[in-house]
Amino acid sequence: MERTPITKEGLEALKEELRRLKSVERPRNIKAIEEARAHGDLSENAEFEAAKERQAFIEGRLSELEYKIASAEIIDPDYLPKDRAVFGSRVLIENIDTGEELEYQLVGPDESDINKGRISVSSPLGKSLVGKKTGDEIRVITPGGPRAFELVDIL
Predict the structure, then answer these.
(1) Cα–Cα distances in Å, from 2 out to 8, 56, 111, 148?
(2) pLDDT of the chain, 155 residues: tens digit per residue
(3) Residue 91 CA: distances (Å) to CA of 32, 74, 88, 105, 110
(4) Contact criterion met (CB below 8 Å) for 45 and 36
(5) DSSP alpha helices (H): ranges in 3-129?
(6) Domains detected in the chain
């Protein structure tokens, strides 16, 4: 099984989602299926069909979360090198064309959230940053075209 890097907080978030699905969402959906069955003819019962679709989604997500948790490898950023960008690093980069500065943390694919400044080490920008040192130039092909950044600081 291939191990997937994750922070301790990221693993806890996956475990919490798994717990919520098992203890809240699954029982709620089972009750919805039972109520829909009580209405009679299942062939034309939209509530029953919707509840069965929701059940399939929940079961699929449970399997996915269990796999992700089993394959997770917790990486503690405190014990990683500070002289180059690696998993867990917080980096400050500058768009060379616009001068805009951006701060990101390099995280695993299950933790990435651009709105929280967390990008995956497997994303194009994340891959380009890994191993770079302060002052290095990073070139990335994005959907909007090529971009150039400078790694200003590793925080």
Answers:
(1) 18, 26, 17, 32
(2) 788 899 999 999 999 999 999 999 999 999 999 988 887 777 778 888 999 999 999 999 999 999 999 999 999 888 888 899 999 999 999 999 999 999 999 999 989 999 999 999 999 999 999 999 999 999 999 888 899 999 999 99
(3) 47, 20, 9, 6, 19
(4) yes
(5) 8-20, 26-37, 46-71, 124-129
(6) 4-74 (1.10.287.180), 77-154 (3.10.50.30)
Place of tokens 């996915």: 64
Instruction: Name the DSSP class of 26.
Output: H
**How far apart are the C-alpha atoms of 90 and 13, rounded to whole Å?**
20
User: Which token pair is 45?
Assistant: 């019962």
